[in-house]
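Data card: per-record layout.
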Amino acid sequence: MMKSRNAPRFGVMLVWTILRESWTALTQNSMSFPEVFEDYEKYHSAINTGNLSRAKLVEDWIEPNSNVLDVGVGDGTVSEYLIKNKQVKVIGLDISATACEKAKQLGIQTEVRDITNGLGLPDGASYDYILLLEVIEHTAYPHRILIDAVNHAKKGVIVSIPNSAYIKWRIQMLRGYVPRQSFTHLHFWSVKDFEIFCKETNIQILEFKTFLPRHLMPFRNLLAWQQCWMLSPKKKEL
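The structure for this 238-residue chain is written out next.
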């Protein structure tokens, strides 16, 4: 949920954005698949993955001077923002060597790693926070990754994913098209879906945020195009 002194103006802009995207989804004559690439090297060579809006949405969850593992670091834009604004220490992982090189150019320590079957962290490794921003929807076994993450995070796991129940995608479905979010997405969650997913995976949700003013939060499953979650780390047995 966004808090701002300019809440009325933000609310008007938000409603305008939702109406514009809904109208586009309703009237668009041709549909195409976005982001069609043979592999993630070509994907990261062609696209800048950094999105500061997500960093600003989750930054209040992160305590200053924390130790952060950014899984799916991409071009490093989010990590760089958190380093500058929260004075955190970051290690970035990504399946793409091209992405890791972009992040390295920003001064971020990175490692190329395929997390298909889990994060691949040693038993004793731990981080204050593990970031999974726009990551798990691209993976074959997201439950393995989330369970691995909560087992290696001391303060929380922060996940962001698109809301597949957003009104724009619903309209595309009504027109007979599968929602065109990204050609690289393997899984699709609404806000309600992810709550069920976490419950069945035995992962506790601590907090939820999205780009909606308070009075629209009851309609978040329809109006939130971005969803961010703080998941609880697994308690260590004494």
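Known properties of this structure: The CA atoms of residues 59 and 82 lie 7 Å apart. The radius of gyration is 18 Å.

See the next section for split statistics.
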